[in-house]
Each structure stands twice: as structure tokens, then as C-alpha cells.
Amino acid sequence: MIxxxxxPRFCETDALGHINNTVVAQWFEGAxxxxxxxxxxxxxxxxxTLILARTVVDFHAELQYGESVVxxxxxxxxxxxxFDIYQEAWQQNKKCASGTATMVYFDYEQKKxxxxxxxxxxxxxxHRFNAELT
Length: 134
Prior knowledge:
By secondary structure, the chain is of the alpha+beta class. Helix content is 19%, strand content 38%.
């Protein structure tokens, strides 16, 4: 698992005083940087090899301004060219949101998916999702 602590900003709240639902997807994307680095170590957009194919976010409880949020990132399903990243947002020891992003390893010049390299699969294996831990 990869963890990142986020301090919610006031501008991320909605009219009800909660963290806006759209913000969680942004936090999840930002917390995927370590995963992106397995493919593009310097995160250069000129060398980018990933496509976001699908993203889903489920909300379990309200997120509040003024308390840190921990984003937990895991690797879920892996295929030949695609994989799932499972993420959770925790605040005050409570899981408030979870989500899955499906990514595709992609060759933009040839306009087709490509096999995930073995060294990336090895890195992924160290961060497998285990439902018993959440």
C-alpha cells in the first residue's frame, strides 16, 4: 500500500461545509503519482504511456474541512495491458470514500495497448490490495 496524507483546503468545501464530491477524484488521481512513476519515472508528459479507461468513486461518509485525510493506494486486478488501482480516503480512522481506476499501458504512436513490463508487474505485486486490511 502507498499512503499520502492530504490537508483539505477551505476552497475544497461545498455549500454544506463538506469536502466536495469532485475533490475526492482529484485527490485519488494525485495519489496515483507513485504508480505513474513505475511507468514514467520522471513523470514527463512527453513520455506518457498510460490512459485512464474508467474511474469509480463510492462515498461512505462525509469528509470534513480541518482534519487531515489519508489516501491509501493499492493495486487490484492486473491484466496483460490494463490494471486497476484501488484507493481509499480515510479521515479520523474512518473510511469515507473508496474508488477504482482502470489504467491501460498504451503506445500513443501506434495507438494501441501494450504489455505491462515485467519490472512494473513486480513493483505492483508489492502493493496488492488485501480486503482484510481495510
